[in-house]
Amino acid sequence: MDVDTFWQDFKSRHPEIKTNHHDTYAMGSTDENATILAHLIAAGTKTATTSALDLYTADEPLPFVGEYNVILDGHDQPICVTQTKVVETIPFNQVSAEHAYHEGEDDRTLASWRREHRAFFQAAYRQEGRIFTEDIPCYCEVFVRVD
Hints:
Layout (H helix, E strand, L loop, with lengths): L2 H11 L9 E3 L5 H12 L5 E5 L15 E5 L5 E14 L5 H7 L6 H18 L9 E9 L2
InterPro entries: ASCH_domain, DUF984, PUA-like_sf
Pfam family, one: ASCH
Organism: Levilactobacillus hammesii DSM 16381
């Protein structure tokens, strides 16, 4: 199903939602990872995510509280809809164990969160010709699966 049809079907089941605004994206750095993460979200295991704030571009809006998101798998197929509930900027080295747990990945510990996100961010920064440091600003988002 294409995203527009998926979104319209979602709205028809939720007439209380008046907005047509939604973001659409897949998470992760590979198609396989995107599919795994999408299914963790659909199952309610993954209810948070983190991005590097200073890697957003000027034409890329930040997620905001109340925003709806169509989550895609690694084949660009819509899997579910989430709504952003909390956003906050926190230095990488101060992200909490609670946030790491809500990310729902690996063993859900802060140690594994830091290991995986450090590797991901180091690669992303290197690709941009920048250097990752432990105090980069992270944009932490908490969401709920709506449908």
